[in-house]
From TrEMBL:
Location of the RPW8 domain: 1-149
One BP term from GO: defense response
Protein family: Belongs to the disease resistance NB-LRR family.
Keyword Repeat listed: yes
Organism per entry: Eucalyptus globulus
UniProt keyword list: Plant defense, Repeat
Gene3D superfamilies referenced in this protein's UniProt entry, alphabetically: Helical domain of apoptotic protease-activating factors, P-loop containing nucleotide triphosphate hydrolases, Ribonuclease Inhibitor, Winged helix-like DNA-binding domain superfamily/Winged helix DNA-binding domain
Official protein name in the record: RPW8 domain-containing protein
InterPro entries assigned to the protein according to its UniProt record, in alphabetical order: Apaf_helical, LRR_dom_sf, LRR_R13L4/SHOC2-like, NB-ARC, P-loop_NTPase, Powdery_mildew-R_dom, WH-like_DNA-bd_sf
């Protein structure tokens, strides 16, 4: 017999919902707050219905839903009072508005933190037909704990945190514009094919083929963002880049994550195929669209592995430079017509939205033809001519005309693109930065901070990376790379570029590597190595012609690589980028011994491109000469680093790392290991609970960023000792409930960034002593209901970012802080991601 709480929950919801809908129309005084509550209730209504349905199917009582019912009952009482408060009773209006806002925030918080765990648990139970009785309760409790850990680790999106899940299968942003009747016709045809209902069970595969640079990927981005396509496939659209060496295991694991399912450990390609079929059967009740972008001829067989004949409306679109004989239908995307190419060229050569007349129409026509009428080449060449005079255009035409090749089209395209690099405004530094992009794997999102760290050391730029960031924008401006900003509220940050990524067309990456590989190995300034298994180049394996001039070295290894590393002499290397993947049998990755013998090494970037973190071995080789270290998706013993000697280290970053909570021994201290550290950055390190107290003894520390670490619960009480600290960033630390009182002593802090700290209840009473504070970001701090009076002393405070409800709290300080600008952050409740 189902407990009455389940039925009562539905009844409580309907009573509240009905009352809100009625009062929105009749009570003007509280209409704004009631509209927000109504929007939240609309979002959670399907979840409430599912809860009752699942509990009926499982014969389970709903005691666990009692807190939800109690909250809804409280809301009904609050909403009901709206009818009794006179519109002219301003004091009661103000107080009740705040109560309504707090209730709405409480509902959002409850459903975004509590309901996902129950939803995952229910799905797990129903899939195996388990009924919760007797002794099973304890086991389910343990499952819930495990599921909570998994939810935080994999989804990690408290209140829609800025980090888009690391699966990278969301459709990239659509282009601002497209040119060409051919493209429009292609969109119409592909749209019709995708919207066509499946006449029979089985996948429908479409190939879109064209030479590199024709705009195949751009076409699919545009298509996937169309309202009709999104309306049919909803969140079942997956955009999968397929590199030259695709890893099916990684792709399948990312597909599980994209669909918010528990990610399996996969030990073989056969296991990956099995898990893929299981996934497709699970999600195939609704239409599914899979885009396999840029499939190489050598990877043709991978397409067959994604075909599933057991689901009905399943569409696969393959983009490729090649036409695969056994896959039909095939859609050919042709180059632009001459007139369309000229139109695109004119758009791209335009500066600041002002139409620009080319020096000579004939000259323009000839340049366009030498660009093969390919969108990628046109964009790059046109942007290199922005604002140039007639002589420069003539020079560019001559360069494009020389060395015309009758080889394959890819070679011709690369030749055209290469000529666009020869001048770059006479600023060779931009070409250098472009070539550096080849240090990262094909089709990956390159963190902007990784590039900035590398460039700051290679080119001796300012510590904060302002010059490096300018170079990023220049590459984007010239269409040599795409600067991607996934987070819409990044303008509220301190321009640290923490949420920016750089992506590059594969042809441009090929060009960058081709430029890097000019000349003899021993004389190259950049050494980019992509190893398959343990197939080292002859010069390395035989210890001949060791690179003597390489300042930047990038080494990528696949899942078949195993140590030991051969020795590599790098006497002048200043930046080392290690990109690696592992298989499920390999739980560790050993840093190469030659790091210890590289006396000039200043920047080390280590990135694991496998799905799960891997333990980092040979940690002792890291030397005292390093200035910047960045780790991604590895297990590293940060709290045991006291044994290392990193006296020159200025910045260390951990992204999605397990940093190990092993306590330091009495005779080892982080502050002794890295006494000159200026910046500590930890993002998505979910096993981080607290920092060691001796962090506060690192006097030069200027920036402290602990973000998206959902178990991080407390800053060190002695944090006030960090006299030079300028930035305190605690974005989405959902377990953090308070800030230490000693924070008031941080008189150089200019930015306090605490958005999405859901459990933070108050700011320190004496925050007014932080006299340099000029910006506070407190959006999403749901429990922060009061502000300390000492805020009136913050005479340098210029900007506060918060929701409208919190802006009311700042109103009483406006007279004292006349230069304060309150930026309202308003986001409609969106719980679709919980479904």
């Amino acid at each position: 017999m189902v407990d009455s709480t389940g039925a009562a929950l539905g009844a409580a919801f309907q009573e509240l919902f009905g009352l809100v809908k009625h009062l929105v129309m009749t009570i003007a005084a509280f209409r704004r707050q009631l509209k927000k509550i109504k929007a939240t209730l609309v979002s959670i209504e399907p979840i409430i219905k599912d809860i009752n349905k699942f509990n009926d199917q499982l014969d389970r009582g709903s005691e666990e839903m009692a807190p939800i019912k109690e909250l809804l009952d409280k809301g009904k009482r609050l909403v009901d009072k709206c009818q009794k408060i006179h519109a002219l009773n301003l004091c009661m209006k103000y107080k009740h508005s705040r109560r309504l806002a707090a209730f709405n925030a409480a509902v959002v918080e409850k459903f975004q933190l509590y309901m996902p765990l129950l939803g995952v648990r229910d799905g797990k139970e129903m899939s195996v037909g388990v009924k919760v009785i007797g002794e099973d309760v304890k086991e389910i409790g343990e499952d819930l704990k495990e599921l909570k850990e998994w939810f935080v680790r994999v989804n990690g999106r408290a209140l829609q945190s800025e980090f888009e899940t690391s699966s990278d299968l969301a459709v990239p942003a659509a282009p601002d514009f497209i040119v060409g009747s051919e493209v429009e016709a292609s969109l119409r045809k592909l749209r019709e094919q995708l919207l066509e209902e499946g006449a029979s069970v089985g996948a429908s595969v479409i190939v879109v083929t064209a030479p590199g640079g024709c705009g195949k990927t751009t076409l699919l981005k545009k298509l996937c963002h169309e309202t009709a396509i999104k309306g049919k496939f909803k969140d079942k659209i997956m955009f999968v880049p397929i590199s030259k060496k695709p890893n099916l295991t990684d792709i399948v694991q990312k597909m599980y994550q994209h669909n918010r399912l528990e990610v399996p450990e996969i030990k073989s390609e056969e296991g990956a195929v099995y898990c893929l079929q299981q996934l497709l059967n699970k999600i195939g009740q609704s239409p599914v669209l899979l885009v396999l972008d840029d499939v190489w001829k050598e990877s043709e067989s991978i397409v067959d592995k994604f075909v599933c004949n057991d689901i009905k409306d399943y569409k696969i679109v393959v983009t490729s430079r090649y036409e695969f004989p056994h896959i039909r239908p095939v859609h050919h995307l042709n180059p632009l017509t001459h007139d369309e190419a000229v139109e695109l060229f004119r758009r791209c050569v335009t500066v600041d939205d002002r139409s620009m007349r080319p020096p000579d129409t004939q000259l323009l026509n000839e340049i366009v033809e030498h660009c093969k009428r390919l969108p990628l080449v046109i964009k790059v060449v046109a942007k290199s001519l922005r604002g140039k005079n007639y002589a420069f255009w003539k020079k560019k035409l001559r360069e494009l005309s020389e060395g015309h090749s009758l080889l394959d089209l890819d070679t011709e395209i690369l030749a055209c693109l290469r000529k666009s690099l020869d001048d770059l405004d006479g600023d060779p530094s931009i070409k250098e930065r472009f070539m550096d992009l080849g240090s990262f794997p094909e089709d990956c999102k390159i963190p902007a901070t990784a590039l900035i760290d590398m460039w700051v050391q290679l080119y001796e730029l300012d510590f904060d990376g302002v010059d490096a960031a300018t170079d990023l924008h220049e590459l984007d401006y010239r269409n040599l790379a795409d600067l991607v900003l996934p987070r819409r509220d990044s303008r509220d940050d301190d321009e640290s570029y923490r949420s920016h990524y750089v992506m590059q067309h594969d042809l441009l990456r090929e060009l960058a590597i081709m430029e890097c590989n000019q000349g003899e190995v021993m004389n190259r300034e950049r050494l980019i190595l992509d190893l398959m298994g343990n197939n080292f180049p002859n010069w390395w394996r035989e210890q001949k012609q060791q690179p003597r001039r390489a300042r930047l070295v990038s080494i990528s290894t696949d899942g078949k690589f195993s140590t030991p590393w051969p020795n590599l002499e790098l006497p002048v290397v200043e930046a080392l980028v290690l990109n690696f993947r592992t298989n499920m049998q390999t739980k560790t990755y050993a840093l190469p011994e030659f790091i210890a013998n590289s006396p000039m090494l200043k920047a080390l970037i280590v990135t694991n491109y496998s799905f799960f973190p891997v333990e980092l071995g040979n940690f002792h080789v890291i030397g005292s000469n390093l200035r910047r270290i960045r780790f991604e998706r590895v297990t590293v013993p940060f709290l045991s680093m006291g044994k290392l000697c990193l006296h020159d280290l200025e910045k260390i970053s951990f992204f999605m790392c397990d940093i190990s909570q092993a306590s330091t021994s009495n005779n080892t201290k982080i502050s002794d290991a890295m006494p000159n550290l200026k910046e500590l950055d930890m993002d998505y390190c979910n096993d981080l609970v607290r920092l060691p107290d001796d962090i506060c003894e690192i006097k030069p520390l200027q920036k402290l960023s602990i973000t998206n670490c959902h178990n991080f619960s407390a800053l060190p009480e002695q944090i006030g000792q960090l006299a030079y600290l300028e930035v305190v960033r605690l974005n989405s630390c959902t377990a953090l409930s308070r800030l230490p009182d000693s924070i008031r002593s941080l008189q150089n802090v200019r930015l306090l960034d605490i958005p999405e700290c859901l459990n933070l209840t108050a700011l320190p009473d004496q925050i007014g002593q932080m006299v340099s504070l000029c910006r506070i970001n407190m959006r999403g701090c749901l429990k922060l209901s009061e502000l300390p009076k000492s805020i009136v002393k913050l005479r340098n405070l210029r900007k506060v970012v918060c929701e409208e409800e919190k802006a009311v709290l700042w109103g009483s300080f406006k007279n004292a802080l006349s230069q304060l600008d309150i930026i309202l952050f308003e986001e409609e409740p969106n719980l679709d991601w919980l479904e």
